[in-house]
Amino acid sequence: MDLCHVPATREKGWYLALMAPNVKGPNYAWLDPSRLYCHPQGLQDCVADLLQPFRGDAIDIVAGIDAMGFILGAAAAATLRKGFLAIRKAGHLCVQTAAQPYTDYSGREKVMEVRTDAIAPGLRVLLVDQWVETGGTMRAAIELVERLGGVVAGVAAICIENSEGGKWIQERYKCSHCVPPCLQPRFDQHQ
């Protein structure tokens, strides 16, 4: 992996080529963006592209979704000079929490939690995750934020697939992702 090479022309999404395909089978996501996070310019450009639609918007805090959303969410929070809130899988927080059950992209039933003292009524939250495939995980995070009185200022992910859940999110919230329209069908079909 060449962590130094940067293309002469950096169009939106150039860094998507850094992602590695799944070699472990159906229990894993079809692409692994973690190699993209190792590339300094790739990570910076990815975060800049994710945040571009929200420039000038009121955002009070960035929330990243367990676990890979922590990487992009923390990077986005640092770029925006905002605080970072971790939305966790159940059982990891030792403080008072609100919980939301959901079904993840692999069809497994899980529970998401957030600390109850972090979201005050009217707090504008930018939700960040690595990927929105079926939308179940992101929708659980949205429900937690809204139940606590927060406002979803936006949703950002490397890819928001055109699944039923992805469309539901895009129809209701301001969204940002990094996949150019010409590549979206390939990402939706996991090619």
Automatic annotation (TrEMBL):
Quote the catalytic activity from the record. AMP + diphosphate = 5-phospho-alpha-D-ribose 1-diphosphate + adenine
Domain Phosphoribosyltransferase positions: 57-177
Some GO term, biological process aspect, for this entry: which one?
purine ribonucleoside salvage
Which Pfam families does this entry report, sorted A to Z? Pribosyltran (PF00156)
Tell me if Isomerase is a UniProt keyword of this record: no
Q: Where in the cell is it found?
A: Cytoplasm
Pathway the protein contributes to = Purine metabolism; AMP biosynthesis via salvage pathway; AMP from adenine: step 1/1
Q: A GO molecular function for this record? A: adenine phosphoribosyltransferase activity
Q: What is its main location?
A: cytoplasm
Q: Check the record and name the CDD domains matching this protein.
A: PRTases_typeI
Q: Where are the transmembrane segments?
A: 61-80
E.C. designation(s): 2.4.2.7
Its Gene Ontology cellular component terms are:
cytoplasm
Q: Which InterPro entries match?
A: Adenine_PRTase, PRTase-like, PRTase_dom
Arranged from A to Z, the UniProt key words for this protein are:
Cytoplasm, Glycosyltransferase, Membrane, Purine salvage, Transferase, Transmembrane, Transmembrane helix
Q: How would you summarize the oligomeric state and partners of this protein?
A: Homodimer.
Q: Which family does it belong to?
A: Belongs to the purine/pyrimidine phosphoribosyltransferase family.
> What name does the UniProt record give this protein?
adenine phosphoribosyltransferase
Question: Upper lineage ranks?
Answer: Eukaryota, Metazoa, Chordata, Craniata, Vertebrata
